[in-house]
Amino acid sequence: MATPKPRVRIPSTAKAGEVIEVKTLISHEMESGQRKDSSGKPIPRKIIKLFIASFNGEEIFRADWYPAISANPYQSFFVRVPETGTFTFQWVDDDGSVYKSEHKVTVG
Amino acid sequence: MTFITGATRRAFLATAGGGLTALVVAPSSVLADAKMVADEIARLYGGKSFKEGRIKLDLPSIAENGLVVPLSFEVESPMTKADYVKTVHFFAEGNPNPQVASFTFTPFAPKAAASIRIRLAKTQNIVAIAEMSNGDVYKATKEVKVTIGGCGG
User: Fold this and answer.
1) B115 to chain A nearest CA, in Å?
2) From the centroid of its chain, how far is CA B41?
3) What is the per-residue burial (b if ≥16 Cβ within 10 Å, else e) of A32-70?
4) Which one of A17, A96, B80, B138 is at 20 to 30 Å from B11 when CA atoms are compared?
5) Mutate to test the interface with A, among B89, B106, B126 (most CBs of A within 10 A)
6) Can you give the pTM of this predicted structure?
7) Which residue of B has its CA nearest to A66?
């Protein structure tokens, strides 16, 4: 499988204190562990199990995902932009890989 | 969704098609039921009594494709350090696993709201449990009728 590619929709500028909706999507099969291959062998589970959003290192929001999350998981949520800073979004895979995306938002 | 490019959409549809085929070939997995969900909630919240209200659940009444069912929610809360929503859990009564997703909020989040897309194996109830910072627990349930089940929820 290709390395999962995160996509994040977040503005690069905001007013101080502004509430914005962040929309994220990452390419991932989210193999549930319920399916079987053509020879009848179960396909092992491999999902992204955790998503974390933080601002300047401080956690804002996290989501624990289970196999009931659709392939290419979408996650939207709300953040406040108190000051110029960096939002970090992290996706943690069952195999321990962490996929990361950083976005600077300027208050002006 | 403007940021789904043609390529990823095709990849996604291919994955979805594969899931459906596997469901037809191997429908043997044991599905969760209302009791498994109740047991899981009891494990987390013991004998707590649940309050009504505050949770706004946005799920379709009828989902044509169980592989991709949009789920949005908002829990009413001022979201201050003194009074905020700590956790919101979602459970499915007719999937192989009772858990769907759990969201942890902090007072830095301006709203206890989020959207995801979920898999539903068949027509079933979705149960939402929201725990507030003062320990109050709210519960909401919604039935979703599924036309084509999503494998492996």
Assistant:
1) 5
2) 14
3) bbbbeeeeeeebebbbbbbbbbbbeeeebbbbbbbbbbb
4) A96
5) B106
6) 0.85
7) B100
Question: How many angstroms separate the CA atoms of B84 and A20, rounded?
Answer: 18
Mean pLDDT of chain A: 96
The pLDDT tens digits for A58-106 are: 999 999 999 999 999 999 999 999 999 999 999 999 999 999 999 999 9
> Taking CB atoms and an 8 Å limit, are B153 and A67 in contact across chains?
yes
CATH 3.40.50.970 for domain B30-148, yes or no, is no
In SS3 terms, B3-56 reads as: CCCHHHHHHHHHHHHHHHHHHHHCCCCCCCCHHHHHHHHHHHHCCCCCECCCEE
- Nearest CA-CA distance, residue A82 and chain B, Å: 9
Walk along chain B (153 residues) and give the pLDDT tens digit of each residue: 444 454 555 554 444 444 444 444 444 457 878 999 999 999 999 888 999 999 999 999 999 999 999 999 999 999 999 999 999 999 999 999 999 999 999 999 999 999 999 999 999 999 999 999 999 999 999 999 999 877 643
CATH architecture of A6-107: Sandwich (2.60)
Cβ of residue A35 closer than 8 Å to a chain B Cβ: yes
Q: Can you give the length of chain B in residues?
A: 153
Q: Quote the minimal CA–CA distance from A44 to chain B in Å.
A: 12
Distances (CA, A) of B17 to A71, B10, B68: 11, 11, 12
